[in-house]
Write a structure and sequence with these properties.
binds uridine-5'-diphosphate; Rossmann fold; binds uridine-diphosphate-N-acetylglucosamine; globular; six-stranded parallel sheet; alpha/beta
Length: about 375
């Protein structure tokens, strides 16, 4: 099989997946691979999906599964049932999955059982918090994957410690940063701040969507109370994820916090770029703020992206109101140090495409062959 003959099925399903898959599809196309872009439909609102195709210049999906929302089992199962006949029919040489959402897991399992090579982009991240659905998705997806594309050295160490073979693990950097660097100029050229009545460097940007923060009414109410206090010191803008919107008590919305629809990618990058600080529980936003040099307070007890704490602008501040408010005060008065990890340079997807095109056709060992101890 020649390089040109490699056919890669690229799967995405949720908002952050679209941002991660775009550079991978582009890089595979540019090295001569044939790509099929499949959207599972896990996210389906225009604000969670359509706008990302437009903003990223991502082509319309070649195949849409339309799985929609549901419980974990329903969603993962719908991805699997929808994908299985497609993998059988297309018989791709490899399936690329990105990130840690239910679509990632469902697609990886189907491909592995069909005997197709599986490549996981963003492999090796571990929060070590088994109550996070994403942690289950990460661990299982890695286990059935042939190619483990790690964004950072800590991810490589995790994979080595779990017994993966050296030839499976590839430190390639961060594809989300590829998209960020390709789009930041266009994003900051927009009138996003003007439209929202915000001044650069004089507002806090907030996102919250982790079940641990938004599914429990008391926790969410407490965090909204914190935002209320912050809004007395600095403007607060909060694009609300649909999961969070469905749980917000309209009677208890803090008056000083601007709750807005989820933003498109370019508007959101512009908001991140101009923020005095970002408060979030998102995975991707911890990485983007690191690259943009904007301080990030992560409202969680752990992170699967520790590199953003050590080599970035991120701080873990948990959920306690006192601790969060102290961190906000510190950042606004004392500033912060800007640092950025190596290999987060905008070329990660090119590295991935080159590795796949050079090796997929010669693949002999499979995930069952763990490192000999
Ligand atoms: C999912 C991922 C999470 C990721 C996040 C990115 C899993 C287990 N979770 O969480 O890791 O960080 O996406 O944003 O895969 N909804 C809409 N419109 C949409 C999509 C969802 O209204 O287009 C609502 C539905 O009520 C749905 C809820 O949001 O039940 C949650 O959606 P779901 O995809 O199950 O999980 P997320 O919280 O979005
Ligand atoms: N994002 C966006 N609009 C928003 C919120 C986030 O475009 O209103 C982008 C953000 O720039 C990042 C990605 O969505 O690239 C992060 O996705 P999300 O926080 O939903 O998921 P996670 O990264 O936590 O899995």
């Amino acid at each position: 099989m020649s390089c040109e003959m490699i056919h890669v099925l690229c799967v995405a399903g949720a908002r952050p997946n679209l941002i991660k898959i775009k550079p991978v599809i582009d890089a595979l196309d540019s090295v001569g691979a044939t790509t099929t872009f499949l959207h599972t439909g896990q996210h389906y609102d225009d604000a969670m999906s359509g706008v990302f195709l437009d903003d990223l210049g991502l082509r319309k999906p070649d195949i849409s599964l339309g799985v929609g929302s549901g419980t974990h089992a329903e969603q993962t199962a719908k991805v699997m049932v929808g994908l299985e006949p497609i993998v059988d029919e297309l018989a791709p040489d490899a399936v690329v999955v990105v990130g840690d959402v239910n679509s990632t897991l469902g697609a990886a399992i189907v491909a592995a059982k069909a005997g197709v090579v599986v490549a996981h982009v963003e492999a090796g991240l571990r929060s070590r918090d088994w109550s996070m659905p994403e942690e289950v998705n990460r661990v299982v997806t890695d286990r059935v994957s042939d190619y483990l594309f790690a964004p950072s050295a800590d991810a490589v160490s995790n994979l080595e410690a779990e017994g993966y073979r050296d030839d499976q693990i590839h430190l390639v950097g961060n594809v989300m940063v590829d998209s960020l660097l390709s789009n930041i100029e266009r994003a900051t050229g927009r009138d996003t701040l003007e439209r929202l009545g915000l001044d650069a460097g004089r507002y806090a940007l907030v996102t919250l969507h982790r079940p641990a923060n938004v599914d429990d009414a008391d926790v969410l109410e407490s965090l909204m109370g914190v935002l209320d206090v912050v809004s007395r010191e600095i403007s607060v803008v909060f694009p609300v994820h649909p999961r969070t919107l469905s749980r917000l008590d309209s009677r208890k919305k803090p008056a000083g916090v601007a709750l807005i629809e989820p933003c498109g990618y370019l508007d959101f990058l512009a908001l991140e770029h101009g923020a005095a600080l970002v408060m979030t529980d998102s995975g991707g936003i911890q990485e983007e703020t690191t690259v943009l040099g904007v301080p990030c307070l992560t409202l969680r007890d752990n992170t699967e992206r520790p590199i953003t704490l050590v080599e970035g602008t991120n701080q873990l501040v948990g959920r306690s109101p006192e601790r969060i408010l102290e961190a906000v005060h510190n950042v606004l008065t004392n500033g912060w140090v800007k640092k950025s990890p190596g290999l987060w340079d905008g070329h990660s997807a090119t590295r991935i495409a080159e590795i796949l095109v050079a090796n997929v056709a010669k693949q002999t060992l499979r995930p069952t062959d763990l490192k000999e101890s």
